[in-house]
């Protein structure tokens, strides 16, 4: 349900041209990636066969990054293969990512407050703004 709301929000942004405000849009894209990473590491936590092989396949995709790919994969794994160290790291990531998401959401809202939101009427929202501080 959460991802459906996110995709609807992205669709609304595309329809109304919110991508014009690059900072707000880029922070939103970073938020989408953070939420997807949180969902992925949460998927791995039950540590069944599907989780194990999902972690193996998806983390191995990072090995395609030039120069640092293999080092990055081994750092995420905590060794040379998906193991207990990987599970510990994914537990840690799954705990920490929501705090990063909350901070990025606040930053997204701050930029949205500065630029204003696009709306169906195409009205200028500057007249209705109230400052955050005096």
Automatic annotation (TrEMBL):
This is Cytochrome b. Keywords: Electron transport, Heme, Iron, Membrane, Metal-binding, Mitochondrion, Mitochondrion inner membrane, Respiratory chain, Transmembrane, Transmembrane helix, Transport, Ubiquinone. Component of the ubiquinol-cytochrome c reductase complex (complex III or cytochrome b-c1 complex) that is part of the mitochondrial respiratory chain. The b-c1 complex mediates electron transfer from ubiquinol to cytochrome c. Contributes to the generation of a proton gradient across the mitochondrial membrane that is then used for ATP synthesis. GO terms for cellular component: mitochondrial inner membrane. It comes from the Eukaryota. It is found in: Mitochondrion inner membrane. The keyword Transmembrane helix applies. Residues 1-121 form the Cytochrome b/b6 N-terminal region profile domain. Pfam families: Cytochrome_B. InterPro entries: Cyt_b/b6_N (IPR005797), Cytb/b6-like_sf (IPR027387), Di-haem_cyt_TM (IPR016174). It comes from Apogon planifrons. GO terms for molecular function: metal ion binding; oxidoreductase activity; quinol-cytochrome-c reductase activity. PROSITE patterns: CYTB_NTER.
